[in-house]
Design brief:
- The complex is a heterotrimer of chains A (399), B (649) and C (246).
- Chain A has 399 residues and is mainly alpha-helical.
- Helix content of chain A is 64%, strand content 2%.
- With 649 residues, chain B is an alpha+beta fold.
- Chain B is 63% helix and 7% strand.
- In chain B, the strands form three sheets. In chain B, strands 4-3-2-1-5 form a five-stranded antiparallel β-sheet.
- In chain B, strand 2 and strand 3 form a beta hairpin.
- In chain B, helix 25 crosses helix 26.
- In chain C, helix 3 packs parallel to helix 6 and helix 5 packs across helix 6.
- Chain C has two domains: 162 residues, 3-Layer(aba) Sandwich (Rossmann fold); 74 residues, no CATH class.
- The model of chain C has no long low-confidence stretch (mean pLDDT 85).
- Classes of the chains: A mainly alpha (399), B alpha+beta (649), C alpha/beta (246).
- At the A-B interface, helix 4, helix 5, helix 6, helix 10 and helix 12 of A face helix 13, helix 19, helix 24 and helix 26 of B.
């Protein structure tokens, strides 16, 4: 844990020094990429708690991430449009009334979907504090309701995964509609401009967000390390390995699952709220089920059941992905066919994912067990990973 | 007075025409040649009446040519001819006999160019002839023309032409059109009511639109309802169908109340007043609230330079003092009542047909889902494995069919080859995947789920690399391209019927395989108790492999079916996979009937929600998924659930 | 002797098959009871119903001094009410240490927040150490449960049940797959356990039941066929018919 926090601080400080200090060795866009990657690491750590520790393969955590992004995006877009509108209305002969400003902001924001009214979902958009609360509360509430329904009816294993995927799909389809109130497939844009901080310039803002992301990741890491240690950690892992047995010990397992599911959803929302101001735009495609699947891929490649593994997986795979798909990788000439990585990266990723599940179930994190100086940590993910109970047909007897 | 003279003239003309029975068309035209050469919308009716009254056989042809601007007039003597252009002028033809009538130079004749209004009038006159034209195609065209632009004038010619109609189809059309015109235009209310009632047996769009036209109504307002007004119903301002604002706007439009200055009006008035210096002591920057602006505006009102604001009380009082109602344009209440009753009856029937139509739609969607989901259900039942790449097997099937179509141009033959080949290719892919990946991950269902994700990502991208991102069409044979239309409401395309039949065939095949064959017995044994089955000498590996292949193969077939009515893209599988999962989850695992029930429920539900909210298929899917999440609460094991010890999944 | 657990008139059927048919049974405080019966007699289903895993179609399961109806309660609440269950095969959390396993089972508040903010108290550690000594695993505390031998896992599970401090212990075929020496040991342990709490043992090994030397209930086709001492029930002609008749 100390190691992880140390490395995190080092990366953050390093990037700050290299980009500022007049050296300019690192471009603003790279600082942003770093900041975004840290946010992805945070959501991956959350995913690891839910999946690697608690055994719930959630295919909805990127949706919670997106909800956080939308929540902060609403305020960013509202506040910025308000500033612009107020500026332009200043030229008019009469000072604008509040209603006029709201109407003008409304038509600015919702013009693309042929509306100018503020939907109910924007009720708090003018209030930064409330909207910041929504960043955590909205995904938390959704997770709470969904989790309560799902865990109460004892949906487990692959069933639960499919159900979370359905939830994600429903959410993204709903957002794609124009009358969802969140600008349909246009999404929210211009989020990189922080109202009131425009004078700082993007290069300084990017560093600020890098710091904020690093702080959030460090804090989230500590929080989850706390949750997954001690008796709580013991209970959570026991749920993963044999939920029925734990029930006979008197633990209301659904309460624990609900707690973990909701807590990680809230942290995911926070990660999203830090990510999208750095990305600049959010649209419903970001919430598609595929995004949550990729999240699972990162965690699996990084190594489940250890928090640093998830972070490493997310950082490595997302950075590699953007390098390959961004055209950064040189094409590979096979003689008969030239491999353009923009086309073939997904194939490589998909297949390497299969390979990892087949041959390295411990992921990259498993490499750390090979360091001879270290006392081997107890195998916290179990020999066959989670969910051995899923195919159980009689009590107490795993097949 | 003028009318008297005109009447006398007409009588005179009638008298004149009597002895001159051998009169030619030319003679009639020459009675008033200027009316032909330079007709106007106003005078042409009279001229046409005169021409039609002659009952000469050549009249229709003449009218047609006239309308088509193919009639010429010789400058020298003012006679009318048809003409054909030659190299150095025109060949002329007699308008009565069509016989050649010599030539003419370019300058010696001039074409008659009736304007659009006149041509419309000519066309109306022509319809009378066209309705009894020997050529059925032209009679049909005339009917279409009337349908498009019905008017009272057509009613009599139409009625006259019915008796002589020989073509039964056209006769039916004419009778129907006659009813429609009678319902709208007949002078006798009793005849109209009879015709309206007769329309009730008809579910066609036309008859409904006629009824709606008769029932056209608009909101009206007055201090009291005037005598003889045909009132549909009284409207309550602020009620569901007349908002307070709309009601007041109606009053303003009728001049019964002063307009309310809007916030914009107030603003504009203030801006103007400030600009003209009429409010010198006012600081414009203080006008940043509605209250401040209202106060400043009231000063303008007091100065008489702006219309006063209207208070809410004044609005209420004005609304109170008047009565609002929805008034029919049609004055006869008996007619509107009959139309309302008929429309209600007809709508009930239409609703029934629509339900049937949705039922058919839902059935065909359910067939698709069934084909897509059954493979998933079998593999999940037997192996406890959810195959996330199942959608990609659908895609593989569809691309196989696309490739076959590229090689074999004959569409029927290519379809016949594609179906088994799609099965074979998907079967092979499924078996390969089972052996290479799934077998190694046995009893780790979540990891299998993830590994198949990986395969799904890779397969989709490979397809994209090979076939491009563009959608590839899969053309159905021509005998599949039509649709079965029962009436205006109920219709279903042949492809959907074919898919339904395909689904039935596979349902039957699967039932036979599972119930009657050795393989089926073994599959059922492994589904119910893998350990026991293994100890009975059944090789579970072999069963798993075959089951997986079978499930994948059916997905391939589903791919061909989906490709035929949608398009083949690398993402097509992903579009169906979630619904397929839902069908499996809702239906219950490891059971053909369960999957059938699940697919039917999902398909039906989707269509039903789409029907309630037709503009928004995205919302439909959202609501459906929400429904399923709730459904799982009550039946966590699906519709067809196994109970007891075997139920613990 | 007042009844600790009173099962009255329960029935349950799976797809038309009646697994339990109007079964009534009472277990007293600190009683050792053996339930025997041929395969399919409904022994395991009976335990499933008592522990909340299966819900009966009809009937009541009354518990304790206040006659709380256990039907409709979930497993966790029933377990917290004081009913422990030992499965046929040892089920311990193999990816966790022996110590963690025992701590999980300790009778402490079970709510998520109580657990999240709980600290390891010295008396808990002492209790765990005491139990570990009693089951002979004191040396194995830091080891992963998955590394233990089959017998050790059995003991660990019994240790977890001790830590849970139930008033009624349901034990499913404890002697299955055991050597004679281990059986001896198990018999002694069960009898010792029954000094402080009620113990119900489901078994079909007559020899083992004889050693327990307790009241015996014979189940057949989902209902009670006979009840009494072992000698009494084995002399019952119906029981002989069921066990030897076919």
């Amino acid at each position: 844990m100390t190691w992880f926090l140390l490395a995190l601080a080092l990366v953050t400080l390093g990037a700050t020094v290299l980009s500022q200090m007049g050296l300019g060795l690192i471009s603003t866009s790279f600082v942003k990429t770093l900041g975004k990657t840290l946010c992805l690491c945070l959501v991956a750590v959350a995913m690891d708690v839910v999946w690697g520790y608690c055994g719930i393969l959630s295919l909805g955590h990127m949706a919670f991430f997106g909800i956080g992004g939308y929540a902060i995006g609403q305020w960013l877009m509202y506040a910025r449009t308000e500033i612009i509108v107020t500026e332009s209305l200043r030229q008019s002969p009469l000072p604008p009334t509040e209603a006029e400003i709201v109407a003008a902001v409304g038509s600015q924001i919702f013009g693309v979907v042929g509306s100018s009214e503020f939907p109910w979902i924007w009720a708090f958009a003018d209030n930064l504090l409330l909207q910041l609360l929504m960043v955590m509360l909205a995904p938390g509430l959704l997770a709470l309701i969904f989790g309560w329904l799902a865990f109460r009816s004892r949906v487990t294993g692959v069933y639960l995964s499919i159900l979370t995927q359905a939830m994600t799909l429903a959410l993204s389809l709903w957002l794609f509609q124009n009358d969802s109130g969140l600008r349909g497939n246009n999404g929210l844009s211009g989020l990189q401009n922080i109202p009131g901080l425009d004078h700082l310039g993007q290069d300084l803002l990017s560093v600020l967000f890098l710091w904020a992301s690093a702080l959030a990741l460090g804090g989230g890491y500590l929080l989850f390390a706390f949750v997954t240690s001690g008796r709580m950690g013991s209970v959570i892992r026991a749920i993963r390995d044999d939920e029925a047995r734990l029930r006979f010990l008197g633990y209301q397992t659904e309460h624990y699952k609900l707690f973990v599911f909701t807590l990680t959803a809230m942290v995911s929302g926070l990660a999203g709220a830090l990510y999208y101001p750095q990305a600049g735009i959010i649209n419903p495609a970001e919430l598609a089920p595929m995004a949550s699947i990729y999240l699972a891929v990162w965690v699996a490649i990084g190594g489940r059941g250890r928090l640093y593994g998830a972070a490493i997986g997310a950082a490595l795979v997302s950075l590699l992905s953007s390098w390959f798909t961004g055209g950064g990788a040189p094409p590979l000439d096979l003689g008969f066919h030239v491999i353009h990585w923009t086309d073939w990266w997904l194939v490589v990723l998909g297949l390497s994912f299969v390979a990892v599940t087949l041959f390295f179930p411990k992921g990259i994190g498993g490499l750390f067990d090979l360091i001879p100086a270290r006392r081997p940590v107890p195998d916290r993910q179990g020999a066959f990973g989670p969910d051995r109970g899923a195919r159980r047909r009689e009590e107490g007897v795993p097949e | 007075m003028l009318r008297m003279i005109r009447l006398m003239l007409a009588v005179l003309a009638g008298l004149l025409s009597l002895p001159a029975a051998a009169q030619t068309l030319q003679d009639i035209l020459q009675e008033n040649p200027e009316a032909i050469a330079e007709p106007s919308r106003r005078t042409v009716g009279e001229t046409l009446d005169r021409i039609l009254a002659s009952n000469l056989p050549e009249v229709p042809l003449f009218l047609e040519r006239w309308r088509e601007r193919a009639v010429y007039r010789r400058v020298s003597d003012g006679l009318f001819f048809y003409a054909e252009e030659t190299e150095d002028g025109y060949l002329l033809f007699d308008i009565s006999t069509g016989a050649p009538a010599g030539g003419a130079g370019r300058r010696e004749i001039s074409a008659l160019i009736p304007n659009a209004g006149v041509r419309g009038a000519i066309a109306t006159a022509l319809i009378e002839f066209q309705l009894s034209d020997p050529d059925p195609a032209r009679r049909a065209a005339a009917l279409t023309a009337i349908t498009r632009d019905p008017s009272a004038d057509h009613l009599d010619p139409l009625r006259e032409s019915i008796a002589a109609e020989t073509d039964p189809v056209l006769k039916a059309r004419k009778e129907r059109l006659e009813r429609i015109l009678t319902a709208r235009f007949d002078a006798d209310p009793a005849a109209r009511i009879a015709a309206i009632s007769a329309l009730g047996h008809d579910t066609g769009l036309e008859s409904r639109s006629v009824l709606n036209q008769i029932l056209a109504a608009s909101p009206q307002v007055a201090a009291a309802i005037p005598e003889g007004e045909n009132v549909a119903r009284i409207l309550e301002p602020g009620g569901a169908d007349l908002s307070r604002e709309a009601a007041y706007a109606l009053l303003v439009a009728e001049g019964l109340a002063p307009p309310v200055p809007t916030a914009q009006d107030i603003r504009n008035a203030l801006v103007a007043a400030i600009g003209e210096g009429r409010l010198p002591d006012l600081d414009p920057s203080s006008l940043d609230s509605d209250a401040a602006r209202a106060a400043a505006y009231d000063r303008l009102v007091a100065a008489g330079s702006a219309p006063p604001r209207v208070t809410d009380e004044a609005i209420d009082a004005a609304l109170e003092a008047h009565v609002f109602w929805l008034g029919y344009a049609e004055p006869d209440p008996a007619v509107t009542e009959a139309a309302r009753a008929t429309l209600d009856r007809s709508l009930t029937r239409v609703a029934l047909y629509q339900t049937a139509d949705i039922g058919l739609d839902a059935l065909s969607l359910a067939s698709i889902y069934f084909l897509a989901a059954i493979g998933l259900a079998i593999t999940f039942g037997v192996m406890g494995v959810i195959n996330m790449a199942h959608g990609e097997f659908i895609m593989i099937g569809a691309y196989t069919a696309y490739c076959v179509q590229r090689v074999i141009p004959d569409q029927t033959l290519s379809l016949a080859v594609a179906l088994p080949l799609a099965f074979a290719v998907a079967f092979a892919a499924g078996v390969a995947m089972e052996r290479l990946v799934i077998r190694r991950l046995s009893r780790r269902p979540l990891e299998t789920l993830l590994a198949t994700f990986g395969i799904s990502i890779a397969l989709q991208q490979i397809a994209k690399n090979i076939f491009g991102t563009q959608a590839r069409p899969l053309t159905a044979p021509s005998w599949l391209s039509g649709s079965l239309t029962l009436n205006d409401v109920v219709s279903i395309s042949h492809i959907r019927i074919a898919i339904f039949v395909l689904a039935l065939i596979f349902l039957a095949l699967l039932l036979v395989v599972l119930r009657r064959s050795r393989l089926g017995l073994e599959i059922r044994a492994v589904t119910q108790n893998p350990g026991m089955a293994a100890s009975m000498g059944i090789d579970p590996d072999r069963i798993n492999m075959l089951t997986f292949g079978l499930g994948s193969g059916i997905a391939g077939i589903a791919g061909v079916a989906i490709g035929l009515y949608a398009q083949v893209t690398s993402e097509m599988g992903a579009n169906y996979i979630v619904q397929s999962f839902m069908a499996v989850v809702v239906g219950g695992v490891g059971n053909v009937w369960g999957t059938l029930a699940g697919a039917t429920l999902i398909g039906g539900l989707q269509k039903l929600i789409e029907w309630f909210n037709p503009s928004n298929t995205l919302a439909a899917q959202t609501y459906m998924i929400l429904f399923i999440i709730i459904f799982i609460q009550f039946r966590p094991r699906g519709i067809v659930a196994l109970r007891g010890r075997a139920a613990g999944v | 002797m007042s009844a600790l657990l009173e099962v009255s008139g329960i029935s349950v059927s799976f797809d038309g098959f009646r697994a339990i048919n109007d079964l009534s049974l009472a277990i007293g405080e600190r009683e050792l009871r053996a339930i025997i019966g041929p395969n399919g007699a409904g022994k395991t289903t009976f335990m499933d119903i008592v522990t909340g895993k299966t819900r009966p179609d009809s009937g009541r399961v009354l518990w304790g001094e206040h006659f709380i109806d256990l039907v409709g309660m979930d497993e966790a609440r029933i377990a917290r009410a004081g009913i422990g269950r030992k499965f046929q095969r040892p089920t311990v959390f193999e990816a966790q240490t022996v110590e963690e396993n025992l701590h999980l089972a300790l009778r402490n508040p079970r709510g998520p927040f109580a657990v999240l903010f709980s600290r390891r108290r010295p008396e808990d550690a002492a209790r765990v150490a005491a139990i570990a000594t009693e089951i002979g695993l004191a040396e194995e505390l830091p080891r992963l449960a998955g590394e233990l031998s089959h017998g050790q896992k059995q003991w660990l599970e019994i240790g977890m049940l001790l830590a849970q401090e139930p008033r009624l212990l349901l034990v499913d075929e404890p002697a299955a797959g055991m050597t004679p020496a281990e059986r001896e040991h198990t018999t002694a342990l069960l009898r010792r356990l029954a000094e402080h709490r009620a113990v119900v043992v489901v078994e079909h090994d007559m020899e083992f039941v004889r050693r327990l030397d307790c009241r015996v209930t014979v189940l057949h086709e989902g209902r009670v066929l006979a009840e009494g001492s072992l000698d009494h029930v084995t002399s019952n002609p119906e029981v002989i018919d069921v066990y030897l008749g076919r």
